[in-house]
Amino acid sequence: MKTLLVTGGAGFIGANFVLQAVADGLRIVNLDKLTYAGNLDTLAPLQGQEGHVFVQGDIGDRALVAKLLAEHRPEAIVNFAAESHVDRSIDGPAAFVETNVVGTLGLLECARDYWRGLAEENRGGFRFLHVSTDEVYGSLGAEGKFTETTPYAPNSPYSASKAASDHLVRAFHHTYGLPTLTTNCSNNYGPYQFPEKLIPLVIQKALAGEPLPVYGDGKNIRDWLFVGDHCSAIRRVLDAGKVGETYNVGGNAERENITVVKTICALLDEHRPLADGRPRESLITYVKDRPGHDRRYAIDSSKLQRELGWRPSQTFESGIAQTVQWFLANQPWVQRVLDGSYRMERLGT
């Protein structure tokens, strides 16, 4: 049974990856600090399964990481661990530098030392896959898409910290020969997403009949990627990606934020109408824009499609319908997340 060390595997994308990987027969050693966005409830289906070992800890704890590597002898490390919310990075950038930069550096150093100590026949198959974001590229104009060669131009403390971690991963490959892979993805959505992000936030507020805050004029554009498709892309890159390369992962689903919000409103009106019969679009409230709010992101994932044969399986319409249905069916999970540490307030003002 192939073993992976997955960091951040109790977060949104990481947990979806872990659930998928264990179901497919992989053994996962899951290291997560369990900050506000980490949630063991998401991993409850794996309780008692031999294919999943959960360890609470920090990727910056080098002694712990070295111990896990020595004990479990993974064939790969997949690094999801990150502070990831732009608004929170505006309020408190230091935590983002600590986890995303300093923590990634510690993980890389442990991975390098472990890899160097592997037997020759195992060293060639080892991989360090770093999961990053399209936000490192900055903001696009009305035309064009981000490619793997687009210059970095991060505009928020979050994206700057992820850009720094990407550069460290690249440096460890070119300096030490560590067999690294990097993926830069567009905006994820889907089951188990922490309810401060746009889509689950809108779902929860719309269910409650509360005002739906939309930044600026609502015309900021993102490329939306269903989380299950992102996880399958990571698996494909891990299995067949060329060492040292970067692969962009996108959903081919550019939408204005206001379109996303109105789509959610329509789905909820269909499946869970408000008691007073109001259309939920009437709840939309435009609020002052976020500082440094990038206007448009769009990912060109043609390299991944051309070289590794990956394609997204979900359209935005099918993915958002699944997502709304999941949140409607899993309100107890949502309510346990909203335990007081997060109240769906706006941050980063």
UniProtKB/TrEMBL annotation:
Query: Per its UniProt record, what InterPro entries does this chain match?
Result: dTDP_Gluc_deHydtase, NAD(P)-bd_dom, NAD(P)-bd_dom_sf, Sc_DH/Rdtase_CS
* Domain NAD(P)-binding per the UniProt entry, residue ranges: 5-323
**Which Pfam families does this UniProt record tie to the protein?**
GDP_Man_Dehyd
For this UniProt record, the keywords arranged alphabetically read as follows: Lyase, NAD
Q: What Enzyme Commission number(s) does the record list for this chain? A: 4.2.1.46
Q: Which GO terms describe its molecular function?
A: dTDP-glucose 4,6-dehydratase activity
Which catalytic reaction applies to this protein? dTDP-alpha-D-glucose = dTDP-4-dehydro-6-deoxy-alpha-D-glucose + H2O
The Swiss-Prot or TrEMBL record lists the needed cofactor(s) as: NAD(+)
Top EC class of this enzyme: lyase
Family to which the UniProt record says this protein belongs: Belongs to the NAD(P)-dependent epimerase/dehydratase family. dTDP-glucose dehydratase subfamily.
Matching NCBIfam families, A to Z? Answer: dTDP_gluc_dehyt
Q: What is this protein called?
A: dTDP-glucose 4,6-dehydratase
Source organism of the structure: Dyella mobilis
